[in-house]
Amino acid sequence: MIEKQILDHASACYPEESCGFVIATEAGQSYMPCLNIAGTPTEFFEISPDDWLRAYTAGDIVALVHSHPDGLPILSGTDREVQRRTNLDWWLVCGGDIYRYKNVSPLLGRSFNHGSMDCYTLFQDAYHLVGIDMPNFSRSDNWWETEQDLYITNMAKTGFYRVKQAEPGDIILICLGSHKANHAAIYCGNQQVLHHCPNRMSKRDIYNGYWIKYTHSIWRHKAWPSYGFTAILNDMDVSLI
């Protein structure tokens, strides 16, 4: 199996980072191991131009693969920066498992489009970078003016429970011009949130005044890892460069 080949390659390269590609052809998917030519391969990886050419000529590149020996199962800031340039899904080997990360849009500076690039999409993509995949929900414009109550109906169903005090990574639901919780913000610590309001770019904001006044509830995911917010912070730090 392709997963076994990827894990075996990572094990053979330890303590250096492994790297390679998942390639799709008419015969199916295959793993193409590559040589890590980085100057410090125990800390970074670099794929040679020759291997990139070999991958492009072998078929369609499905994903770039590398490992984090003894590291965290999340993409580093450098990983996210290079992932955006390659415009590929990245598969990460860590602790004997394979984590698959889509090339989601940068969390900061997104243009708003309800239903496809909105506060829930930001919430969904940020959690994807943590390793928690949220389902897609069909949501019509102004759903909060109907009988629907999408956030409250689905938070517990998707693994969240309510808390009283926010910690980094928690979801703060806000009543934005409505009596229903129709806006989600990610708490960043230090009284800051990451969110995406209508007709604005996604950004970090001070969590005070209006936002606190109209806060509906605070939610934490049951599977939230201790390193979770690091994944989100890595993405935001790259956007600020």
Automatic annotation (TrEMBL):
Signal peptide: none annotated. SUPFAM superfamilies: Cysteine proteinases, JAB1/MPN domain. SMART domains: JAB_MPN. One of its GO terms (molecular function) is zinc ion binding. InterPro entries: JAB_dom_prok, JAMM/MPN+_dom, MPN, NLP_P60_dom, Papain-like_cys_pep_sf, VirAsm_ModProt. Residues 75-222 form the NlpC/P60 domain. It comes from the Bacteria. Gene3D superfamilies: Cytidine Deaminase, domain 2 (3.40.140.10). Keywords: Hydrolase, Metal-binding, Metalloprotease, Protease, Thiol protease, Zinc. Residues 1-123 form the MPN domain. GO terms for biological process: proteolysis. CDD domains: MPN_NLPC_P60 (cd08073). Belongs to the peptidase C40 family. The keyword Metal-binding applies. This is Phage tail protein. It comes from Limnobaculum xujianqingii.
